[in-house]
Design goal:
A hairpin with a 3-residue loop joins β2 (about 20-25) and β3 (about 30-35). The chain is about 35% helix and about 20% strand. The protein has helices spanning about 85-100, 110-125, 130-145, 190-195, 200-220, 225-240; strands spanning about 1-15, 20-25, 30-35, 55-60, 70-75, 165, 175, 185-190. By secondary structure, the chain is an alpha+beta fold. It is built from six helices and eight strands. Strands 3-2-1-4-5 form a five-stranded antiparallel sheet. It has two domains: about 1-75, OB fold (Dihydrolipoamide Acetyltransferase, E2P); about 80-150 and about 190-240, Up-down Bundle (de novo design (two linked rop proteins)). This is DNA repair protein RecO. One of its GO terms (biological process) is DNA recombination. Involved in DNA repair and RecF pathway recombination.
């Protein structure tokens, strides 16, 4: 097996005395893991940071073997790790992607969306510049992996008018009239999720609660606790940033 491609670094795990197993997302082949010799060295630590873009070359004699990976830095987002909020956003977005995607299957929409999200965080570190894009990315991950929400019609009336809630059980939208008497049992559906455009902070908070419910139930159920802990740290910092 031989693959040379640009990739977004998602996760780095120590292996052996100085090596590292690196998981990175390519547009062509999806999530790829590889062993980087000296991956924890002083020279490579700044290269192998979540969110960085590398030129990777994966080589293995068989499909079952963990490939050897050599890396060259193409774009560094390391300066953003000096700021707690962008750093937490990078940590969560890359951890979610690494935990949820299967290896070796291309997800070009996910790659493109993650690249756009990381670019948005880098361009405008303040949360209002990218928090809505983060919600959309989380919902895209759900959709791409078969757990997408049905936001095109009301579960109660069958119409697409004034959709304002989502059923936490079915993931289907509910109109304002169809939700009368049941509002407390439903998740709020912010308008920007369906119609796009800008979002106020209350809408972003509602969007984060919406995506969190389905991420935890459907996509990350049984996954390592530290993945959800990364999201908790991000949400805490988001709340403090706008308090």
């Amino acid at each position: 097996m031989h693959l040379a491609a640009s990739a977004i670094v998602l996760a780095i795990r120590p292996h052996g005395e100085s090596g590292a197993i690196v998981r990175a997302l390519t547009a062509e082949a999806g999530l790829m893991a590889g062993y980087v010799r000296g991956g924890r060295s002083r020279q490579l630590r700044p290269v192998l940071q979540p969110g960085n873009v590398i030129l990777g070359e994966w080589r293995a004699r068989t499909e079952e073997q963990l490939p050897a990976l050599t890396v060259e830095l193409m774009h560094s987002r390391a300066p953003m790790f000096r700021e707690p909020l962008p750093a937490a956003a990078f940590e969560w977005a890359t951890a979610l992607t690494a935990a949820a995607l299967p290896e070796g299957q291309p997800y070009p929409l996910v790659h493109s969306a993650l690249e756009g999200l990381l670019d948005a965080i880098e361009a405008a570190p303040a949360a209002r510049g990218w928090a809505a894009a983060l919600v959309r990315y989380e919902l895209l991950m759900l959709a791409e992996l078969g757990f997408g929400l049905d936001l095109g019609r009301c579960a109660a009336t069958g119409t697409n008018d004034d959709l304002a809630f989502v059923s936490p059980k079915s993931g289907i939208a509910v109109s304002r009239s169809g939700a009368v008497g049941y509002e407390s049992r439903l998740l709020v559906l912010p308008r920007f999720v369906v119609a796009g455009g800008p979002a106020e902070w209350d809408d972003i908070v509602a969007g984060l609660k919406l995506s969190a419910h389905f991420l935890e139930r459907d996509l990350l159920h049984g996954k390592a606790a530290e993945v959800l802990a990364a999201r908790a740290r991000l949400v805490d910092r988001l709340n403090r940033a706008v308090a």
